[in-house]
Amino acid sequence: METPAPRAVAADDEAASTLSRALGLDELFPGFDAARLREVFPGGVLSEYPLGFRLVDQGEAGQDVFVIAGGKVSVRETMGDDDIPLVVLGTGDVFGEIGLLRGGVRTATATALEDSRIFRLPGKDLQEVIAKHPSLGDHLGRIAAARLGRSQ
After folding, report:
1. CA atoms of 19 and 123, how far apart (whole Å)
2. What is the mean pLDDT of residues 4-32?
3. Which residues pair with 66 in a beta bridge?
4. Alpha helices in 4-122 (DSSP H)
5. 32-65 burial string, b = 16+ CB within 10 Å, else e?
6. What is the per-residue pLDDT across 19-55, written as a single tens digit (0 to 9) for each?
7. Could you tell me which of 41, 76, 103, 129 has the fewest CB atoms within 10 Å of its CB?
8. Helices (H) and strands (E) in the chain, counts
């Protein structure tokens, strides 16, 4: 049976607030709400992803970053014949930042563990915000470094 496609939904202020906290935007954009979300990330989309949907595949090209507004995502890495579970992420967690910061190649596979609401923020939008507000790049760098098992 084929997994259904994700369905775009309107972002409300609560989802925008979750995104703001996850990306550390509170100081950059006080009062971040759904209207401000559309201004700052014009290509950003909040979608409902069904259980089992693969959001990214290890090795594929991609610089989009994801923020979970509700639900759970499993992140796994394949090494040789081994499929290694890395982490289960939930509401307020970010993933895909390594692809954005390290040349656009996915280092792991992310799959929805339950029906989930997840923002997909285009790498282009993020790069424009980072150019104006380097602290966002620093924040994403710290997340990536923690994931890679290093401190920054």
Report:
1. 15
2. 94
3. 95, 120
4. 13-23, 34-40, 97-101
5. bbbebbeebbeebebbbbeeebebbebeeebbbb
6. 999 999 988 999 999 999 999 999 999 999 999 999 9
7. 103
8. 5, 9
What is the tens place of the pLDDT at every residue in 130-142? 999 999 999 999 9
Give domain limits for the chain.
7-147
What is the rounded distance in angstroms from the CA atom of residue 107 to the CA atom of residue 116? 22
In this structure, what token pair is assigned to residue 104?
């656009």
Residue 96, by phi and psi: left (phi above 0), alpha (psi -120 to 50) or beta? left
Q: Report which residue type is found at 26.
A: D
Give residues with Cβ within 8 angstroms of 13, minimum separation 6.
Answer: 33, 34
Specify the amino acid at residue 25: L
CA dihedral 109, 113, 115, 119 (to 10 degrees): -40
